[in-house]
Specification:
With about 475 residues, the protein is α/β, with parallel strands linked by helices. The chain contains 17 helices and ten strands. The radius of gyration is 26 Å and the shape is globular. InterPro entries: Bact_transf, EPS_sugar_tfrase, Sugar_tfrase_EpsB_2.
Length: about 475
């Protein structure tokens, strides 16, 4: 995994992205060569530097469209047919966006005939590149060999994560080195003999990383000297919480220690980060408000026509440092949704939802008025989802570290919203908190952009609708 601004990115996806950007830019030049034959250089020369900018714009738009439709969360077992089926709507979206860019910036326009040819060339090139990259990953070129210290429940969880997370990284599991006084919960055939040193076991099996997956580290049975020896000999040693943070983008609260949070990296709350985030919030919010204004006007009209009730819904939520504010959303439930006076969790296919409300929830249109909360400074565009005071009091008592999510501004979208399905229980709140803590610890402009792209995927594909 590569680490960019505290966020871990798959090496395979990074390689694929760079290869595809090169293919897309090269496709524009190759298309020009085929279409204009010997006059290619003269054609490019008449376009001056704008031709290279046009090629870069085309590449960025197609990559963005592929990202928005989940093409960079690809499964390693994805075959040629499935790749082609996923590629077609991505290019359809890309064609629409690049056409809009050509209309807004005519200097980048390079002709419909050339665009059609470039689309065919680049689609074929990306299809071949994906097959080759994924086949290379399966052959072991981008596979990491890891060894687990421990054989109990935590070791099994780490093993399952490493096996099931193949969409981002591929691991070859060497085995498990047991520790004393630990209940074995992994297959017996995967247990390695502990008669030799941990370094010897790692070298013999060519392991590049040791994941420490032991809960109880008290007493003299924990092999701290062996782990130090591995570290000094170039073998990476990773703690289980860090392994979950890296692979699942979660900070697990069930075995989290305050010392790990205190002495670990992250939690950037500097002036520079705050200034950059606020500037990003204002820019994105104003652009989205301009683009979404027609949709918001139509939505308000339909809400009013359905039951002649209020268009907007205001509700108290908990924001940064525990301060409350009134969040604004399009009303998606009946006026008597909480006639009993007691707050209720929202449910999947909630019967209190109106017909218009069901659609705007699925399309996330109900969240758009929160742009006003962002412009007022009460919210950020990306951050933990704001919760009601009634539920916050309950969850703070039942879930450790829950209040940490209030150390930054809440957001319209966030890591939990794009990584976890809609939830309405304490158990769901725990899972979502683990994503929120990851964001609080590792938030950056780079991560904000990734979450916005994932949010677009959620909207376009209707994931997590409730």
């Amino acid at each position: 995994m590569l680490r960019i601004s505290n966020h871990h990115v798959s090496k395979i996806i990074s390689v694929l992205l760079l290869v595809e950007v090169a293919i897309l830019i090269a496709s524009v030049y190759l298309g020009a060569g085929i279409r204009f034959h010997g006059a290619t250089m003269r054609y490019i020369g008449t376009q001056s530097n704008s031709f290279f900018l046009s090629a870069c714009a085309f590449a960025m738009v197609i990559v963005f469209s592929m990202s928005a439709l989940g093409m960079y969360q690809a499964n390693f077992r994805e075959g040629l047919r499935n790749t082609l089926l996923r590629l077609m709507p991505s290019f359809a979206l890309g064609i629409g966006l690049i056409t809009l860019i050509f209309y807004l910036i005519p200097e980048l326009y390079f002709g419909r005939g050339l665009l059609g040819l470039v689309i065919v060339i680049s689609a074929f090139g990306i299809l071949i590149a994906r097959v080759l990259v994924f086949k290379s990953s399966e052959s072991g070129l981008l596979v990491s060999r890891i060894l687990f210290l421990g054989s109990g429940p935590l070791a099994k969880e780490c093993h399952d994560l490493a096996i099931n997370n193949i969409a981002y990284h591929k691991y070859d599991i060497v085995g498990f080195v047991p520790t004393p006084n630990e209940e074995c919960q992994v297959p017996a055939w995967a247990i390695l003999s502990a008669d030799e040193s941990l370094l010897s076991i790692a070298n013999r099996h060519n392991a590049s990383e040791v994941v420490v997956s032991v809960r109880d580290r008290r007493g003299g049975s924990f092999p701290i000297d062996d782990l130090l020896e591995c570290k000094l000999n170039g073998i990476k040693v990773t703690d289980a919480p860090a392994f979950f943070e890296r692979e699942a983008c979660q900070i697990r609260v069930d075995f989290l220690q305050p010392s790990w949070l205190i002495f670990g990296s992250g939690f950037d709350q500097s002036f520079l980060r705050a200034f950059g985030k606020r500037s990003f919030d204002l820019l994105v919010s104003m652009l989205l408000f301009i683009v979404a204004l027609p949709v918001m006007l139509i939505t308000g009209l339909f809400i009013f026509l359905e039951d002649r009730g209020p268009i907007f819904y205001r509700q108290e939520r908990v924001g940064k440092d525990g301060h409350t504010y009134m969040v604004m959303k399009f009303r998606s439930m009946r006026n008597d949704a909480e006639s009993g006076g007691k707050p209720q969790w929202a449910k999947t296919n909630d019967p209190r939802t109106t017909k218009v409300g069901s659609f705007i929830r699925m399309a996330r249109i109900d969240e758009l008025p929160q742009i006003l909360n962002v412009l007022k400074g009460e919210m950020s565009f990306v951050g933990p989802r704001p919760e009601r005071p009634f539920f916050v009091q309950q969850l703070c008592k039942e879930i450790p570290f829950y209040n940490m999510r209030h150390s930054i501004k809440p957001g319209i979208t966030g890591m939990a919203q794009v990584r976890y399905q809609y939830g309405a229980s304490v158990e769901d709140a725990v899972q979502k908190l683990q994503y929120d803590l990851y964001y609080v610890k590792n938030n950056s402009l780079f991560l904000d952009i990734l979450i916005l792209i994932d949010t677009l995927q959620v909207v376009l594909l209707g994931k997590g609708a409730r």
